[in-house]
Amino acid sequence: MPIHEKSLIRPENLETHESLVLDDVDVSGHWSTFISPRVVTDYNEALEDEIAALPGGQNIHRCWQCGSCTNACTVNALNPDFNPRFWIYLVRMGMEEELLRDKEIIWQCVSCHKCTTVCPRDVEPEGVMKAMAHWLELKGHQATSPSSHFDDVFSEQVIETGKIEEGRIVRDFFRRTGQPLMQDWLVEMIKRLIRHLPVTLLARMGLATLVRPRTRAWGPARAAIQDYVAEERVRQRAALGLDGEPGSARPGLPDAAE
């Protein structure tokens, strides 16, 4: 299905002429705008399969371009350039170079799941957006996003200890993304917690941040999860043609070459 909306045509591909006559008809000025012709030679016929091989992207083939996802999108309401429907179209058409022109904003999905709720085809667009962001990182088109850093920190803690300690997650996330630990909003939140939470609970939270408690008998479960993550990493990298390439795995997750 072709894309006709003018808003989706790149500005550099639009042409206007102050003075232009075609077949004795004056078509000068902005009222008659032309789209520059181009030959597309950058098709990646495997692009849809690559996205589908990553977590969340498995239903991308169901999309019929109704636009419900973009219409409901929280980020699109603030930035019209954030357009899940259009990006899904580019992926299914194999237009990799066109998709890469928006690589700076694709990862900004806030996972509100409004798009997934309204999708009539169960595409799960939120998952597709995360798969696109993951694909950009694995392919080396984009540095690891803050969202992916947080996912990594969260996953690493769960796999290692079988527990979620919010304080340690925040601390490790700030460290990994190069942010200072003492931030105004965090200091204010801690002050309010101190005023309203029982002292015993605060003490347990502080102790957990320091001693890293583990779920009892967690070792076998941790080993099983690590094996599964390693297998999935190999499968995903193979689907993207990344076998044996060092340094492209996400932090904290096994590289296919390991």
Secondary structure layout:
Elements: E1 14-17, E2 21-22, E3 25-26, E4 29-35, H1 47-52, H2 68-72, H3 74-78, H4 84-93, H5 96-100, H6 103-106, H7 114-118, H8 125-138, H9 146-161, H10 166-176, H11 184-196, H12 199-211, H13 219-239
Antiparallel strand pairs: 1-4, 2-3
Helix pairs in contact: 9-10
Verbal overview:
The chain has 258 residues and is mainly alpha-helical. The chain folds into three domains: 6-35, no CATH class; 47-138, Alpha-helical ferredoxin (Fumarate Reductase Iron-sulfur Protein, Chain B, domain 2, Orthogonal Bundle); 145-258, no CATH class. The protein contains 13 helices and four strands. It has helices spanning 47-52, 68-72, 74-78, 84-93, 96-100, 103-106, 114-118, 125-138, 146-161, 166-176, 184-196, 199-211, 219-239, and strands at 14-17, 21-22, 25-26, 29-35. Strand 2 and strand 3 (25-26) form a beta hairpin. The radius of gyration is 23 Å and the shape is elongated. 19% of the residues are buried. The model is unreliable at 245-258 (pLDDT under 50).
Quick structural overview:
By secondary structure, the protein is mainly α.
Please give the count of helices: 13
Largest sheet: 2 strands, antiparallel
What is the string of helix and strand elements? EEEEHHHHHHHHHHHHH
User: What is the terminal-to-terminal distance?
Assistant: 42 Å
Tally of DSSP β-strands: 4
Classify the secondary structure makeup into a structural class. mainly alpha
